[in-house]
Design goal:
The complex is a heterotrimer of chains A (149), B (384) and C (249). Chain A is mostly beta strands and 149 residues long. Chain A folds into 2 domains: 2-59, no CATH class; 63-137, OB fold (Dihydrolipoamide Acetyltransferase, E2P) (Beta Barrel). Chain A has 1 helix and 8 strands; from the N terminus they run H-E-E-E-E-E-E-E-E. Chain A has one helix at 18-24, and strands spanning 29-33, 39-40, 55-59, 63-72, 85-92, 97-102, 116-123, 132-137. In chain A, strand 5 (85-92) and strand 6 form a beta hairpin. Chain A starts with 17 loop residues before the first helix and ends in a 12-residue tail after the last strand. Chain B has a domain at 4-117 and 209-227: Peroxisomal Thiolase, Chain A, domain 1. Chain B is built from 13 helices and 11 strands. In chain B, the strands form 2 sheets. Chain B has a 9-stranded mixed beta sheet with strand order 3-2-4-7-1-8-11-10-9, with helices on both faces. A two-stranded antiparallel ribbon of chain B has the order 5-6. Chain B is globular, with a radius of gyration of 19 Å. In chain C, strand 2, helix 2 (42-54) and strand 3 (59-63) form a beta-alpha-beta unit. Helices cover 47% and strands 15% of the residues of chain C. Chain C has 249 residues and is of the alpha/beta class. Classes of the chains: A mainly beta (149), B alpha/beta (384), C alpha/beta (249). Chains in contact: A-B, A-C.
């Protein structure tokens, strides 16, 4: 299931493969340690605070701010058809960091370190296989259409 | 406590070596090192190979190299920590001598990168960072350093032109190094006009893949003094790691592994940054060298741009850096680079660098980073 | 059996009579608000709409040319706006115009293909666009056992119904990742107005053909359609369900 995550997946097996299933349902998940409640993002099975191995998924708001970014012009295998693309690293409001592409609601010229963004779950709609990812969008952007406009 | 010293060095030309296998390249460097040390191979107790396996079709490289060098049945093994593999081999050899297990160890940093086809290289390119959370978005090696550069520019006002000055310096010295891949000087304009790779880095901000091999013969103190009167001592070693993932780096304007490794190496050698007369730092990208000036304490945090602008990293400046061309002009055969840096420092400390010689170089440093800073090895060499 | 369709919004093409009317009414009975389209018989459509309103549900009767992409878009937009969304799309509008192929006019062919096949493309497309964005939806395309087998005198009709089946399967593959089920219902002979024009000997032959000894009522078909629109059928997609009393096994 973790193969669903990303444009190219190099990681078929992981203890946190449920992350991808939740992402397909529009939910960005971190992990909460079953023993000490420590919250991690990205999710991880092994608690960095107390080393306990059991956890539960905990939904993140996806709100964050840009720490740094770059526009990649020379692409690795599997990404040639979308180059150039801009990746950003953001600090998430609750904890942790996330790396993702900027989405359509944020024009290239407006990208700035420190700006607030919203992580939005996405799917490659025109691929036959299920492939999920997320993008950095203007705050307030939602995953699915909430009204009929 | 017994010291460990370098008694012999050998360094191939770096470049597109479509004339040799990796073991044949290793042999070139090994032969030169043996001659340089005036050493009989019988005296070698073991070898340590620094190389990165995924670029070679041959599996288990150390074995095939040991065989070709006719060093069977001596022990050998591979050390791999990405671009710091050469330094890891040096550290491992040093530790084995310090522990009294071996007297004389041949360290061979070697790499062939040009055996891969372009599709194979492109496939490897995307797997540099954390493949679980980052590579899925198409991150690349220059992409990561570009993230650092953007942050450095944001926090300290560093400019793309200042980054280009690093490349200009290294090409200046590469033009004077017969072992380098690139032997022509460049201008800032040429550097800034080159194709974009990952903003703000252009082609000229990035080192190039290359093939090459370097051999260093390390020996325990007593044996070293018998073998050579030009021994350069490896007196300070620091080694540290940092997260593989940029998602867990608190500060993106420097490499925490480098700062920690430098601190450790300086302490062990009983020196400070100011005492370093000549340095080889890991300029996989121009920003990497700039951050190294700061991480190693050659200048204050955030002042790397000014440091290069003021030509402090040239011979005659406060700390000459990469006066053999660095990774930028030599090329970066990843397993060989760490050993190449050590080789240059040894030559500087011996006074053998001709027009690139730094005056009174008695303390030198190598700073060898693996990947995006998940590993860093800092070594301090001393000439008595 | 509570099908969980309370408050859902459905469009049924060709909902003014026969199977379409039965489907519209059954959906309303299950709690849906229903928009139904008709080609020309707006009175009949309004009657069905009135019955739906009597049940306490909202209804919309729309005269619409199913073969027009533009008109379909307008109709669907209007439904989404007036009824507050769209959850269920039932394509049912269809015609027959029989004849042996060597006597079939171009117009005979084109009309049947346009209404029966293109008319499903238009509404499936419009519904898909809505369902994709909200990650939910149900599409049911009314087909026929004459799309699974060949029927004498119906090269045009069989082609269109076979086409409906294949369209349904291909669309199911495209829509699955959006949590949208796409299925077809393939009735055999149904006792409707259309069938009332069929000579008695053919009807009797059809009864004999069935294993159950009877031909379907419109409600027999509507019940299966409504089942497919419910969460009970959430794991069925890309399927063609015959409702033919065993007429074609």
């Amino acid at each position: 299931m973790f193969q669903w995550f990303g444009k190219v997946s190099y990681c078929p097996h992981t203890k946190v493969s449920g992350f991808a299933r939740h992402l397909k349902d529009g939910r960005l998940m971190g992990s909460r340690c079953a023993a000490c409640d420590h919250l991690s993002f990205p999710p991880r099975a092994d608690c960095p605070a107390c080393r306990h191995g059991e956890f539960a998924y905990a939904e993140m708001t996806g709100q964050g701010s840009v720490v740094t970014f770059t526009r990649i012009e020379a692409a690795p295998a599997g990404f040639e058809d979308m180059v150039p693309y801009t990746v950003g690293v953001i600090d998430l409001a609750e904890t942790g960091r996330l790396l993702a592409w900027f989405g359509e609601t944020i024009p290239e010229a407006e990208i700035a370190i420190g700006m607030e963004v919203q992580v939005v779950p996405r799917m490659f709609e025109e691929e036959e296989e299920i492939k999920v990812y997320y993008t950095l969008e203007r705050p307030g952007t939602t995953w699915v259409k909430s009204d009929s406009s | 406590m017994t010291r460990v010293g370098v008694v012999g060095i050998g360094h191939t030309v770096f470049g597109r070596r479509s004339d040799a296998t990796v073991q044949e390249l290793a042999y070139e460097a090994y032969r030169d090192a043996l001659a340089d040390a005036d050493l009989d191979p019988q005296q070698i107790d073991a070898s340590v190979i620094g190389s990165v396996p995924e670029y070679h079709k041959q599996r288990s490289l150390a074995g095939v190299i040991q065989e070709y060098l006719d060093l069977n049945p001596r022990p050998t093994w591979l050390t791999e920590v990405a671009c710091a593999s050469g330094s890891a081999a040096i550290r491992t050899a040093w530790m084995s001598i310090k522990a009294g297990v071996h007297e004389v160890v041949a360290v061979i940093g070697c790499q062939k990168m040009t055996e891969l086809t372009t599709p194979e290289i492109l496939a490897l390119m995307g797997r540099v960072g954390d493949v679980q959370w980052e590579s899925v978005f198409g991150t690349t090696f220059p992409g990561y350093y570009a993230l650092f550069a953007q942050r450095h520019m944001h926090e300290y006002g560093t400019t793309a032109e200042q980054l280009a000055l690093v490349a200009v310096k290294n090409h200046y010295y590469g033009a004077r190094n017969p072992k380098a891949l690139f032997r022509k000087e460049i201008t800032v304009e040429k550097a800034r006009a080159s194709d974009p790779v990952a903003s703000p880095l252009n082609v000229y901000d990035c080192c190039a893949n290359a093939d090459g091999a370097v051999c260093l013969i390390l020996a325990a103190e007593d044996t070293a003094r018998e073998l050579s009167d030009r021994t350069v001592w490896l007196d300070g070693l620091g080694c540290a790691t940092a997260s593989m993932s940029v998602l867990r780096r608190a500060d993106l304007t420097g490499l925490p592994s480098a700062t920690a490794a430098a601190r450790e190496a300086y302490a062990m050698a009983g020196i400070t940054a100011k005492d370093i007369k000549v340095a080889e730092v890991h300029d996989c990208f121009t920003i990497a060298e700039l951050m190294a000036y700061e991480d190693l304490g050659f200048c204050a945090r955030g002042r790397g741009g000014r440091f290069i602008e003021e030509k402090q990293a040239y011979i005659g400046g406060s700390t000459p850096v990469n006066v053999d061309g660095g990774l930028k002009a030599k090329g970066h055969p990843i397993g060989a680079t760490g050993a190449s840096q050590a080789c240059e420092i040894v030559k500087q400390l011996r006074g053998e660098c001709g027009e690139r010689q730094v005056e009174d170089a008695d303390l030198g440093l190598t700073h060898n980073v693996g990947g995006i800073g998940q590993y860093c090895f800092v070594h301090v060499f001393r000439r008595d | 059996m509570n099908l969980g369709l309370e408050g859902k919004v459905a469009i049924v093409t060709g909902g003014s009579r026969g199977i379409g009317a039965a489907i519209s009414l059954e959906l309303a009975r299950q709690g849906c608000d229903v928009a139904l389209t008709c080609q020309g018989r707006i009175d009949a459509a309004n009657e069905v709409a009135a019955k739906i309103k009597e049940m306490g549900r909202r209804a919309l009767a729309v005269k619409a040319d199913v073969t027009s992409v533009e008109e379909t878009e307008r109709t669907v937009n209007r439904v989404v706006e007036e009824l507050g969304g769209l959850d269920i799309m039932v394509c049912n509008a269809g015609i027959t115009w029989d004849g042996v192929i060597w006597k079939m006019s171009e117009k005979q062919w084109d009309a049947v293909i346009a209404t029966n096949l293109k008319g499903y493309f238009t509404y499936n497309q419009a519904a898909a666009r809505v369902f994709m964005k909200q990650r939910s939806g149900k599409i049911v395309n009314l087909s026929s056992i004459n799309g699974l087998r060949g029927k004498f005198g119906q090269t045009n009709y069989s082609a269109s119904k076979g086409g409906n089946n294949a369209l349904t399967k291909a669309l199911a593959k495209e829509m699955g990742k959006f949590n949208v089920n796409v299925n077809a219902v393939a009735p055999g002979m149904v006792a409707t107005e259309m069938a009332a024009t069929i000579p008695p000997e053919f009807l009797n032959a059809a009864v004999k053909d069935t294993v159950l000894g009877r031909i379907a009522t419109s409600e027999d078909v509507a019940h299966v359609v409504v089942f497919l629109c419910s969460d009970y059928a959430r794991h069925i997609t890309g399927e063609v369900i015959k409702v033919d009393g065993g007429q074609y096994i």
